């Protein structure tokens, strides 16, 4: 009996091997380091993979072929190669790999960032770009940003009299968190404190479990067993169940009209309205809404806070730049007490400071991994379906062919330059580019600009006693999004005589 069903397999096996052999002979892969059995090149990754891959690219070039576990991976480290991937061949490689084996987790929604290139992703992306993160919608949330930034300034004013250092990293996380909550859910929610801190804990856990090494990411079919063994699988399950519970209660509350009539329309309202208006095939279900809310949190909160903490650290390390940006803000805004969003367009140097921060410290140094859908060639090299693609935006921002003195913080380099971060200039890719580029740029940047402008306008910033600017620790913390290892502690000195 057994031998009967084995027979076709035994006959087919040599054929499969011959065909595979032929395919391998055809391959003309990009260069890369030697691979070890089973683990491939995993042993060559340090805690900061963008740095290890940058070093390898100096030896093997701007397009490398590596193997992480069983996953063939293409690593791109120059603007020219990034343009090949994200512009010329965008359509052939705009899927996402099945990260952390979501199919094996039992929650029912896949967020847009992790969704493969299919109808589900296309529909969700359309809603995001057209309805949620359009410039008009982002502008409608201006009062929320201005109110929240004003309350941050007044609470710092209270502590500025005592001359004690304050933890700016924490303040940045609170502000992006609060604004995101108010924009997404309305005003009744208090960010991480919601549900006795249950939501806050889930958010914290999410950043850990998403940044952790996962067997399922590198060893298809069997890796999830490793994750079960290490407990990662269970932690991810719990974490996403917490989110599910939280988003469901937000949706229920919106549906039951338990909210105040005077409250501004928030993103959950917008999504529920779209769902009501377009019933039938292609409409937004509660799972779609949860997936979008999930992305707004995972995409929006940490990355914005990270940019601001690096910006403040670079500014105190470079006092001339700090003075120049403060002079600009103060000369334009005067002593009217605060910077409004209407002032921001005139703050040209502040915008250069933010660009320079994004060049040196992109929050997601390797962007989010893409996956190749169909075969194509670059520089004569074959790139095959299912290959994972990593674009090293961190290395690209340091490419000496495009950036003079790349390691130095010189915002003036953008003075007469057209280079922007919106995804059309491949030398600067903090938000990615192409079909999978970040749809939340306007939302993210508007919070960063307003918060930094007000902090730099209202206060001078001193270092804690006994610390010199040379002592500031600029080490990076490992993780998917790379924050500063040590939080930014600075002393606020009130500049406004009559705040
Ligand atoms: C300064 C803040 C932000 C930074 C630095 C940032 C950066 C990025 C990057 C690098 C990607 C991957 C792009 C690629 O693979 O080519 C991405 C994707 C994404 N971001 Fe952002 N982001 C920020 C803010 C936001 C905000 C505020 C939101 C939502 C409100 C958001 C939502 C998303 C989504 C949904 C994706 C997935 C896009 C897709 O795969 O189709 N991001 N972001």
What is this structure, in a nutshell?
The chain contains 18 helices and nine strands.
Overall description:
With 499 residues, this protein is of the alpha+beta class. The chain has a domain at 41-106 and 365-396: Uridine Diphospho-n-acetylenolpyruvylglucosamine Reductase, domain 2. The chain has 18 helices and nine strands. It has helices spanning 2-26, 49-60, 79-88, 119-132, 135-140, 142-160, 168-185, 198-211, 215-218, 223-230, 232-255, 267-277, 286-317, 319-333, 341-344, 348-360, 393-396, 441-458; strands spanning 63-68, 71-76, 166-167, 370-371, 376-378, 381-383, 388-391, 459-462, 489-494. It has a four-stranded mixed β-sheet. Strand 1 and strand 2 form a beta hairpin. Helix 6 (142-160) runs antiparallel to helix 7 (168-185). It binds protoporphyrin IX containing FE. Protoporphyrin IX containing FE binds next to helix 4, helix 13 and helix 18.
Overall pLDDT confidence: 87
CATH topological fold name of the domain at 41-106 and 365-396: Uridine Diphospho-n-acetylenolpyruvylglucosamine Reductase, domain 2
> What is the highest CATH level, the class of the domain at 41-106 and 365-396?
Alpha Beta
Helix coverage percent of residues? 40-55%
Largest sheet: 4 strands, mixed
Instruction: Say which molecules are bound, naming each kind only once.
Output: protoporphyrin IX containing FE
Give the C-alpha Rg: 24 Å
Structural class: alpha+beta
